[in-house]
């Protein structure tokens, strides 16, 4: 009887031992916290834009960067300032009653809005240095109507300067002005030594 009891107790102990071994080798389910964190990260991550398409924010930034800056009000661009080309050099001659100024705009057939003629005076009889810098004064400002009046048939222009004196050297330059009041650079200087007395001139 005692022997049978020992055998049964041994079998029960063996059964329990085998049950514990099988329980220790089992792998548990994944932790729920890792799954929750992964789900939150996926939900908050912004969706990638399709290839070749920019988002609205990127498009707005690109447009702002490539848009040219506006010209401040009241400022004239360099291109507008240089719109009027430099005038041709004057041709000079003299008569008993003054200096004759002649010029031609070449292929330019239209009459400019205005022409300004400046002159420097040198009294060489009293020793003025004719090669030294001198102040230029405005001797004529011709409007479009006045230019049309002095225009010759061949397209050249002729102007008489009667405010001259004997034994003076005169240097002339011309400036052309456009419709918006923008004027060109002065032409090259033209020089003449006036030798008439102008005694019989009106």
Strand order of the largest sheet: 4-3-6-7
Q: Quote the average pLDDT.
A: 76
* Percentage of residues assigned to helices: 25-40%
Which structural class is indicated by helix and strand composition? alpha+beta
CATH class of the domain at 80-194: Mainly Beta
Shape: rod-shaped
Rg over C-alpha atoms, rounded to the nearest angstrom:
50 Å
Question: Can you give a write-up of this model?
Answer:
There is one protein chain. The chain has 202 residues and is an alpha+beta fold. 28% of the residues lie in helices and 25% in strands. It is built from five helices and seven strands; from the N terminus they run ααααββββαβββ. The strands form two sheets. It has a four-stranded antiparallel β-sheet with strand order 4-3-6-7. Strand 1 and strand 2 (98-104) form a beta hairpin. The chain is rod-shaped and about 170 Å long. The termini are far apart. The relative contact order is 0.16.
